[in-house]
Amino acid sequence: MISNGSVFEDDHLLDPIVGRNSHMNEVADALAPIEDGQRAENCFLFGPSGAGKTTVARAAVRELRREVLDVPYAYVNCWRDYTRNAVLERLSRDLVGAAVPRFASTSTLLDRVHRDFNGPGVVILDEVDQLRETELLYDLHEFRGLSWIGIANDEIDLVTDLDERVRSRISVGYRVRFDRYGGDTIAEMLERRAREGLGPNGESDEVFETIAWLSDGDARMGITTLRVAARKASSEGLSNIPRRLVDDSISEAEREIARKTYSKLNDHQWVVVGVLQQDGPLIQREPHERYSERHDDPVSLRYFRDAHLTNLEQYGLISTRRKSGKKLYSLAQKREQVVSR
Ligand SMILES: Nc1ncnc2c1ncn2[C@@H]1O[C@H](COP(=O)(O)OP(=O)(O)OP(=O)(O)O)[C@@H](O)[C@H]1O
Ligand SMILES: [Mg+2]
């Protein structure tokens, strides 16, 4: 019964997106100076997983580019590209379309973007809390007319590691908080996707409402569950989704999302998962100690906590609890079965 599977992919951007009008307006306000040829305000979007942060950022840039054709734009996922050089490489490719040799030095990359970038323009820095070298934000500031939309789960201070002189020059004009979605909004997203992606008869308000309610405000969970349920219905030869398939689909969707999240982990995070799987639960500094023994190029304790542990926890891959006032880390139980690397 799935007629168009791409509709259920994470990067499928509905046009227009569902709800989130006030969030869209805020980001649009931040970007508005670009319409007059000026640098936009930087903005920072934060909130829980599946609350639509990446979607709103991409939709706001799409709107902008309908107004001002060909605004230079790049999307960087800092989970994947977490070093200064990796981000600069992506900018020279996607923002200014300049081919760069592999392993180009930082100064070559900076020169390339300086030379070819014709602002104003905008960069989405998704999962920006994973950025290891925050001086990159200063590099961005130095590119004339470039602004950014940073995205993270928590409202973090991105520039704490920079020295005062540099810090005071990087301003964040808009901070936009995302809360979990209400059930009605998720039900509407499911209906829109069903209309685009499931065959005729694929729609059922009762099923959308049930899935939306069970997804607990997480749009990704809702959409993935709908796809799993549609797949199950097809394999039973049905042309619609019966209510009884929904509960099993939710747990399968949870595993599917966890599997995808695992596939995004970088080598540091894999070592953490491996350490916890083998030796967990671990207490206080132990995860960092064991990780440092096993990684060739370990990061500092602070970065480890802020970027890796916090993120793995937010994505539900590891869980923490307190025991006699000390923090204990372990692999989240539901996730153990999907670790396969
Ligand atoms: N307002 C919306 N309209 C339509 N689809 C949406 C909307 N919000 C989220 N989605 C869909 O839900 C899924 C998750 O949304 P998104 O990736 O934006 O979440 P996020 O807040 O960035 O989560 P994370 O912190 O895990 O990256 C995507 O498939 C996206 O297309
Ligand atoms: Mg996102």
TrEMBL record:
A GO MF term: ATP binding
Residue stretches making up the AAA+ ATPase domain: 39-177
UniProt keyword ATP-binding, yes or no: yes
InterPro entries in UniProt: AAA+_ATPase, AAA_22, Cdc6_lid, ORC1/CDC6, P-loop_NTPase
GO biological process: DNA replication
Entry keyword set: ATP-binding, DNA replication, Nucleotide-binding, Plasmid
Source organism superkingdom: Archaea
Keyword field contains Thylakoid: no
Family as reported in the entry's similarity comment: Belongs to the CDC6/cdc18 family.
Name of the protein this chain belongs to: AAA family ATPase
